[in-house]
Amino acid sequence: MSRRVTVELGYPGDTRDVTVEIPDGEPVPWQVPDRFELVGRSTPRVDGAMKATGAARYSYDIVLPEMLYGAILRSPHPAARVRSVDLSAARRLPGVRAAIEIGNDQARFAGQEIAAVAADSSDIADDAIALIKVDYEPRRFAVTIADAAASGAPSVFSGSNLDKPKISSKGDVDRALASAAEKIEATYVTPVQTHVSLETHGAVARFDESGLTVWCSTQGIFSVRDDLAVYFNLPPEKVRVICEYLGGGFGSKFGARPEIVTAARLAKEAGAPVKLMLPRGDEHLATGNRPNAEQTVRLGADRSGKLVAIDLVQRGSGGVGGGSGSSGPFKMVYPCDNIRTSETNVYMNAGPASPMRAPGWPQGCFGLEMAMDELARSLHIDRLEFRRVNNTNPVRAHELDLGARAFRWDDTKSALAKQTGTNRRGIGVACAAWHALGASGPEATAIAHRDGHVEIRCGTQDIGTGTRTALAIVAAEELGVPISQVASEIGDTRYPFSLPSGGSMSAPSNTPAVRQAAAHLRDKLFRIAAPILGAAPSDLEARDAVIRVRFDPSRSVAFKTVCRRIPGDSISAQGERLPNYQEFRPDQAGCQFAEVEVDTETGITRVVRVVAVHDVGTMLDPLTSRSQVNGGVLMGISYALFEMRRMDPALGLMMNPTMDDYKLVGPLDTPKIDVIFLDVRNGGTNTGVLGIGEVVHVASTAAVACAVSDAIGVPIRELPLTPDRILAALEHA
Amino acid sequence: MKSDKPKKSHKAALSRRSFLKGAALTSAGAMAAVASLSHLKPAHADAPMPAGAVERLGPGPAPIELKINGEVKRLSVEPRVTLLRALREHLGMTGTKLVCDRGACGACTVLMDGRTVTSCMVLAVDARGREIVTIEGLGNPARMHPVQAAFVVADAMQCGFCTPGMVMSIAAALKRNPKAGEDEIRQSVAGNICRCGTYPHVFAAALNTARGFGAGKGNA
């Protein structure tokens, strides 16, 4: 049975009534007039004390009795045939308990897994790795796009190193460009970026009579479980995957990756639990990256500054695998009538790409927004105005206004027009988009115990966004209890199913299941409370830690008192995440403004301040959300100014696989960051909560690069903006 | 000594760390006087050594004592074992995190005689006789150090993997100067890398603590 309800969605200044059809038992979606106790107020993360004291147990911290330490031998050659692997000397080393071949007979990048050992200590494991003899037949290789795409290039697999271009087209781009009043064409180049999650990839694996148990650093416990069940030919219920805490992932930790399978294989071979966490260097070489891109962008506009055509020809590569497409922003941010994109994956002898925070978008946004700046200059239109003219999303229009005011765009621009000296300041603005509406699939259990505390169980995981906190806020709000009374249990495949955490999907996918479970639990508690209050269950509400009669709040009973009447030990209720229904908007907007200062004598760039404006669906927790925005902005600054996987084209090796040579943004590089949230009751689900991990990162790099270009008065076409590039750009100005 | 130990062919370059780890000699004075291997004694920090003597350890495990969070811990480690690995793998104290393993990120920061050190760059045998304080020594979830409590309130963490190191750096800075301003605070965590980009909230947590310092009790 389903019912129709009409809800008021949107945000103050732009709301509308939306009729949604929802099944019985599904709570009415949160809407504009709703007043909340917890939702939208800053709540410190519920597991904060665990993290601040070092008590949080990451996979890396798991210690089991009789546990061995694993290590992996990797190919030192960018391309080679593996003729033979001799494990005998490694096996003879005292303390070595298992040695296996991983089974790659071709090494296609320096860092590819060849063999592995497990030993009594990590030092013995390292010693044993050094004793493995591998007979390699080195081959020709290519580690740059140019080398891999050249005629006669060595094949990374077999045949061409170029995929067939993926083309998408609407309208007539060529004709629109031919008749455009103003147009530009330029090629924008972005580097390979590695994830650098602080907790490296890896797992602790144990086989026993109950099956296989794996503690691993993963963004998706259930997908790891399913992969391992297939690999070891076990029923899924015989595989248990646990990830209590996760030290970062950013898209690089999905599925039963080689190091997880290897840990389990070693555990099986040794007959003892094995911990295999990768050393830092392996992280840079083999666990994924954001692929590079060469984007040739053509934009055309009419006299009024309206875009008439967008054309992208892109090719990119992370190495031996992974999609490099970057067309998202070109299609979604400034949609015009004529848009054509062509994307080509290139394969080269380097570690594979994997999803990384808004895959394809930061590089696409960089190409698009730099071209927008160049075209605005040709049109003699203010760069912010040019974006306003071409923006079609009313939420973003509002955000651009909010941001411009907070950033003081016009005043700053006038002030900078008068600047003198060798330190040059500049400003930039870039627009974001994403589609973080989540998906059906997740389930949740809500349990009330006789002592009055509530447990939420959901088989999701926390990549650092504050998942436990988000789930606890939703449950506490629905049950009208303080958040201290709610415990979120996550990170175990024994809990109800959930999806991998990626693409900003966790909050919008899990919170509706939790809210539904909490609502069902509340209804069960109402049935216990009703006779106490002499009222019908349907007349009750749960607020302020009491259950009371809605029309006569003086008739109330404490939540804990009701829990003491639970006939057994506890009562529980289930919730499921329904498919999305009608929403306010199917996308997210957002924009970021940046001011930078460039020392034109040294080429060193400093980001001075950033204003980030983002719509977040229903705002659950401004405090942890602000953390995510800070992180998105800073990772964008890092990509704009510092980060680059450097491959030696002669040796075929990565030259900077360390955290001292691969430079990340640090505390001293951190600008003032102002965050403005637009709280939008979005509907679509019963919470209307959206994820924000991706959208807050999409525009950050572009905004900084636009500001640098403004500061030095030269177009920026290649990242990262290292001092040598800045000085070279100034020289050619 | 295992002099026939093969070189790691896949890591040909001699890094600072492999040099450090390979050096089995710890100097107890300016002049060298090599003790015989057969006289290797438990390497207690307070073992009397003649002036100018050089103590010889390894390559096998040697019993040592470390003073950690006010407690004397006895363990047996090879000289190549870092303080970080001794804490994590020999003593089961996993609050201190290994991230870069070469002193570039600050995640393994502990206090040694009141000063911050990256414990991945200190050999366990060189930590003998020093007062070591780890994140576990500052507080626990039920009884947090003021800096830890401030980190929670300001949400100075995301994935949390850099957090113990950040807390140690801030706690040390505020111990040095309880009224530290933002510049001093930034400098104190300049070597602590956070991939989640939590720095602004770390600064906020530290400044909040500086403003209210003295209210709580801490061991550091």
What does this structure look like?
The complex is a heterodimer of chains A (733) and B (220). Helices cover 29% and strands 27% of the residues of chain A. Chain A is α+β, with helices and mostly antiparallel strands. Chain A folds into 5 domains: 37-65 and 196-287, 2-Layer Sandwich (Aldehyde Oxidoreductase, domain 4), CATH 3.30.365; 67-161, Aldehyde Oxidoreductase, domain 3, CATH 3.90.1170.50; 162-195 and 289-346, Aldehyde Oxidoreductase, domain 4; 393-436 and 585-731, Aldehyde oxidase/xanthine dehydrogenase, molybdopterin binding domain (Aldehyde Oxidoreductase, domain 4, 2-Layer Sandwich), CATH 3.30.365; 444-456 and 467-488 and 502-579, Aldehyde oxidase/xanthine dehydrogenase, molybdopterin binding domain (Aldehyde Oxidoreductase, domain 4, 2-Layer Sandwich), CATH 3.30.365.10. A 7-stranded mixed beta sheet of chain A has the order 5-7-3-15-12-13-14, with helices on both faces. In chain A, strands 9-19-18-17-10 form a 5-stranded mixed beta sheet. Chain A is globular, with a radius of gyration of 27 Å. With 220 residues, chain B is of the alpha+beta class. Among the domains of chain B are: 60-137, Beta-grasp domain (Ubiquitin-like (UB roll)); 139-211, DNA polymerase, domain 1 (Orthogonal Bundle). Chain B contains 7 helices and 7 strands, in the order αββββαβββααααα. In chain B, a hairpin with a 2-residue loop joins strand 3 (62-68) and strand 4 (71-77). Chain B is elongated. The termini of chain B are far apart. The chains are: A alpha+beta (733), B alpha+beta (220). At the A-B interface, helix 1, helix 3 and helix 17 of A face helix 2, helix 3, helix 4, helix 5 and helix 7 of B.
